[in-house]
Amino acid sequence: MSKYVFFILALSSISALALITIFIISRGAPIIGEVGFFDFVFGMTWAPGRGEYGIFPMIVGSVTVTLGAAALGVPIGICCSIFMTEFAPAALRNFFRPAIQLLAGIPSVVYGFWGLIFIVPLIREYLGGPGLSILAGAVILAIMILPTVISITEVSILALPPEYKAGAMALGLNHWQAIKTVLLPAAKSGIVAAVILGIGRAIGETMAVIMVLGNAVALPQSILDPVRTLTTNIGIEMGYASGTQSQALFATGIVLFAVIMLLNAAAQFITRKK
Questions:
Q1: In terms of Cα–Cα distance, which of 221, 213, 217, 209 is closest to 46?
Q2: Residue 1: half-sphere exposure toward Cβ, Cα within 13 Å
Q3: CB 108 within 8 A of CB 232
Q4: Which domain covers residue 24, as residue numbers?
Q5: C-alpha span between 66 and 147 (Å, rounded)
Q6: pLDDT tens string 113-163
Q7: How many domains are contained in the chain?
Q8: Cα(135)–Cα(267) distance, rounded to whole angstroms?
Q9: What's the confidence (pLDDT) of residue 271?
Q10: CB under 8 Å to 247, separation ≥6 — which residues?
Q11: pTM
């Protein structure tokens, strides 16, 4: 009996995903058919008042901010994981783990408010530009993805058999050489999965980046330029959108949904590869 109960519960989760997918596609597909897929995805102008729905600048904004967050957050996250698993004493690990988990529990609006008060003025004063920029969004998202990257990478390293490091050091390698040449390559699949899930977390973030990106619908020329991402576009306009504009926002959600699903599928594939 319990087997069937758990099967129904699992099926309900899958059904919820299927219903969400059907709902988004049914609301957004008509405008894609009307505008044209390539004109919608690669169009340069977003002007609902004139009936122009091009999301390419927002795709570029999403990609640049996400890549910036990965470039900043992934190395720090991996280094933190190595420190906690291989160098930190037990007392220090017991302090760092709850602190890192606390980062995941902070509401995204708090990150955005902190970035607006501290990060944006620093960029404006020392690097120039309006401060509301790709760089500000990348810094905030880099902090937000740290718990994901650190936790999964740490678990991947701890899951390795202790004989790996013992054998490497028995062959004459020092501690760092054993980590670099044996442990990290052996945990590669888990680390890559952590990176992909962190990127998925970053590309799907809305509230924090609304506050620090500047939300300009234009192709950026540098990391100090303001941009608008796919998620911020939906978050800003959905409250008052109607008609074809609402359909265009749902179509934007289709593109975002497809990207996140591909990233999650890639993470699942990599983690199961070995």
A1: 217
A2: 0
A3: no
A4: 2-273
A5: 16
A6: 999 999 999 999 999 888 899 999 999 999 999 999 999 999 999 988 888
A7: 1
A8: 26
A9: 65
A10: 27, 28, 30, 31
A11: 0.89
* Statement: residue 273 has pLDDT above 70: no
- Phi (first) and psi of residue 109, to 5 degrees: -65, -30
Average pLDDT over residues 99-115: 89
* Identity at 49, one-letter amino acid code: G
Domain of 148: which CATH number?
1.10.3720.10
The β-bridge relationship of strands 46-47 and 52-53 is antiparallel
Which residues are within 8 A (CB) of 257 and not within 5 positions of it... i.e. 6 or more apart?
21, 24
DSSP bridge pairs for 209: none
CA–CA dist 5, 209 (Å, integer):
41
Structure token digits, residue 229? 């991402």
Please state the separation of Cα 45 from the chain's center in Å: 25
Give the least confident one: 1-5, 66-70, 248-252. Answer: 1-5
Contact residues for 30 (Cβ-Cβ < 8 A; gap 6+): 247
The number of angstroms, rounded, from the C-alpha of 112 to the middle of its chain's C-alpha atoms is: 15
Q: How confident is the model at residue 60 (pLDDT cuts 50, 70, 90)?
A: very high
**What's at 125, amino acid-wise?**
E
